[in-house]
Specification:
The complex is a heterodimer of chains A (251) and B (222).
Chain A lengths: L1 H11 L3 H33 L13 H28 L2 H32 L8 H22 L3 H15 L2 H11 L22 H30 L4 H7 L4
Helix pairs in contact in A: 2-8, 3-4, 3-6, 3-8, 4-5, 4-6, 4-8, 5-6, 5-7
Chain B lengths: L1 H17 L1 H22 L3 H22 L6 H5 L2 H4 L7 H22 L1 H7 L7 H25 L6 H28 L5 H30 L1
Helix pairs in contact in B: 1-6, 2-3, 2-6, 3-8, 3-9, 6-8, 6-10, 8-9, 8-10, 9-10
Pfam family, one (chain B): CcmB
Membrane topology (chain B): Multi-pass membrane protein
Subcellular location (chain B): Cell inner membrane
Chain lengths: 251, 222
């Protein structure tokens, strides 16, 4: 019985008006959660955590850099799951969500590259190095841009979404490459210092703000994804009855 | 099944031969790039032999892009592509055949003329065989990746710009391992690790890319 209800609920989400209503209810809560976590995390990161013994205060950029990098990759995984669902079951709202993840993921990738570059200038003495981690992250940015460009180039949005979903799945090979790049190659970028299973080589006093920031970026991604999908849905369906009903005849 | 594939191959090659000049364009383009490089960076043998592996490979990569726009589009326009789904031959095999003929036209000439290209940029002689092997493994990969990108962009009307944006991230590993192999050989080191990884990429691509390409073609003729 419970299983049946879950199934029905899931199928109802494929209906644009239901999906629209859900996004409208859930997204503000996610935004609020993201704002609180980010405020808390940034306050801890900037005021409470002691300076690093070697890098003094400049290490604090990691509280933006690392969560953004993780979110850029996690966002891609979310898009891949949505792409599989979209290609197999052809649910329109999932197709739209898979597409709307790309600009957000691209933004996180760009934040990651920019903050890394700003940190690299004083620490490594260079803005950029062609090492495996940096290059594979740059490749991820172009995969995101390719998905956005491909989707935008189609007149028929549903067809464009499905074709771009195939590209999402092809680009998935890059994700493990990014993750393992610091182990497979000798890179200027440091290896993993944070480990969930076993001891991290980062001091434990530096961890809590990072966790808050990671939660904040996750919530932010979810909120932006729901908002963007809702907007795209309204724009695509602007001549349909349910949108006129919801937004008044003027829309 | 084999008959359909052979017929397609024969047709593609015949078309390529009859369009003689057009089919030679990738090769002409390759040499145009290779002539411009020494003029651009200066003709010093030391610098040229250091950048030779990368330059030959980048030129081969750019040359393979040239014919991609016409890989599936004429067949889409005249309706032949839809017929692929009506026959009994699996479309994946027809896609493979088409990519094979693309490789014969754009990849093979590059491999044949690789020794000449190597000489133009003073690639050390001991690296020549590795260059040829890396091209043998790597150019089919370029055809496969290019074929996928060309199938993905088939339904759009501004294919060419998009094509290069889609191809760029996918060919990065090919370029890294291929030039890594040739550079290692030029330095007198073993290139086997790089060539092994390149072969692994080829095996992965041969098994998975035709499936993705077929799916993309199918979405585009719907």
């Amino acid at each position: 019985m419970i299983w049946h209800n879950i199934k029905v609920g899931f199928h109802r989400l494929g209906s644009p008006p239901v999906f629209h209503r859900l996004c409208r209810v859930v997204a503000p809560w996610l935004w609020a959660g993201a704002a609180i976590c980010a405020a808390f995390g940034l306050y801890k990161a900037l005021y409470l955590v002691p300076p690093d013994y070697q890098q003094s205060d400049s290490f604090r950029i990691l509280y933006v850099h690392v969560p953004a990098a993780w979110q850029a990759m996690a966002g891609y995984l979310v898009m891949s799951v949505l792409a599989v669902i979209a290609l197999v079951w052809r649910i329109r709202t999932t197709e739209i969500m898979a597409m709307m993840g790309a600009p957000i993921g691209a933004a996180f990738t760009l934040i990651c590259l920019a903050t890394g570059s700003i940190w690299g200038r004083p620490m490594w003495g260079t803005w950029w190095a062609w090492d495996a981690r940096l290059t594979s992250m740059l490749v991820l940015l172009f995969v995101y841009l390719g998905i956005m460009g491909l989707y935008a180039a189609f007149e028929d949005k549903r067809k464009g979404a499905r074709v771009a979903c195939i590209l999402i799945l092809v680009g998935l090979v890059n994700i493990p490459i990014i993750h393992f790049s610091v182990e497979w190659w000798t890179t200027l970028h440091q290896g993993s210092t944070i480990s969930f299973f076993g001891e991290s080589s980062m001091d434990s006093s530096m961890m809590p703000p990072l966790i808050w920031m990671v939660i904040a970026t996750k919530l932010m991604f979810g909120a932006a994804l729901l908002d963007r999908s809702r907007n795209e849905l309204i724009e695509q369906d602007r001549r349909k009855g349910w949108v006129r009903q919801k937004l008044g005849a003027s829309a | 099944m084999t008959r359909a594939m052979l017929a397609l191959l024969r047709r593609d090659l015949r078309l390529a031969v009859r369009h003689g000049g057009e089919s030679l364009m990738p090769l002409v383009f390759l040499f145009a790039v290779l002539i411009l490089v020494p003029l651009g960076v200066g003709p010093g043998p030391n610098l040229l032999s250091a950048i030779a592996p990368g330059m030959v490979w980048v030129a081969a990569l750019l040359a393979s892009l040239l014919a991609l726009e016409h890989l599936f589009r004429p067949d889409l326009d005249d309706g032949t592509l839809e017929q692929w789904w009506t026959g009994e031959t699996p479309v994946g095999l027809l896609v493979m055949t088409r990519l094979f003929s693309h490789w014969l036209i754009t990849g093979l000439p590059v491999i044949v003329f690789a020794p000449v290209a190597a000489q133009m940029l003073y690639l050390p002689d001991r690296a020549l065989s590795t260059l040829v092997v890396s091209l043998l493994i790597g150019t089919p990969l370029l055809s496969l990746i290019g074929g996928l990108a060309s199938a993905l962009t088939l339904g759009t009307n501004r294919g060419s710009v998009l094509l290069s944006i889609l191809i760029f991230p996918l060919v990065v590993p090919v370029l890294i391992f291929a030039t890594g192999a040739v550079s290692a050989a030029a330095d007198g080191l073993s290139a086997r690790a790089h060539l092994g990884l390149l072969s692994a990429l080829l095996i992965l691509a041969v098994t998975l890319i035709p499936l993705a390409t077929t799916a993309a073609l199918r979405l585009n003729i719907e």
